C-alpha cells in the first residue's frame, strides 16, 4: 500500500513540474537569459537571386546578443578588409509581436524580419538597396 501511495505521489509531482515549464520567448531564444548572452555565427546568406556561399572572412564572424538589449559583432580571425574594426557594439530590440528585430548600428537602425528563431538556429531577412537578403545563423559552439 505504501508503494502505491509513493508511486501516485511521484506521478503527481512529475506532472505538476512538467506543466509549470514556461515556453521561452523569442528574445530568450535569441539572447539567452544569463549575462553571457548567446553567440551566433553566419552559416548562409541568401539574396533574391540565389544563395551565396559566404567567404571565410564572413563565416568566422559572430554576433552575441545579450538579454540587456545590447549586442556585440566580432570580426573573427579572418578579415574581409584589413581596415575593418575588430568589433562593433550596439543595441537591439524586438517589436511587440517579437517578429521584427531592430539593430542600432551607429546613428542608424536596421529592421529585420525574423523568419525563424529556435535554440540552435536564427534566420532573419531584410531589404537592402540590392534587394532582399536572408542571413541564416547557427548557434556558435
Structure characterization notes:
There is one protein chain. With 141 residues, the chain is α+β, with helices and mostly antiparallel strands. It has one domain: Domain of unknown function DUF4822 (Lipocalin), CATH 2.40.128. It is built from three helices and nine strands, in the order ααββαβββββββ. The chain has helices spanning 2-19, 26-31, 56-59, and strands spanning 38-47, 50-52, 62-65, 70-74, 87-94, 100-105, 108-117, 121-128, 131-139. The chain has an eight-stranded antiparallel barrel with strand order 1-3-4-5-6-7-8-9. A hairpin with a 2-residue loop joins strand 6 (100-105) and strand 7. The protein is globular and about 45 Å long. The mean pLDDT is 80.
For the secondary structure, the number of strands is 9
What fraction of the residues are assigned to beta strands by DSSP?
35-45%
- CATH architecture type: Beta Barrel
Order of helices and strands: HHEEHEEEEEEE
Overall pLDDT score = 80
Task: State the strand order across the main sheet.
Answer: 1-3-4-5-6-7-8-9
Contiguous low-pLDDT stretches (5 residues minimum) are: none
CATH class bucket: Mainly Beta
How would you sum up the global shape?
A: globular
| CATH topological fold name | Lipocalin
Number of domains: 1
List keywords for this structure.
20% helix, 141 residues, 3 helices, alpha+beta, single chain, Lipocalin
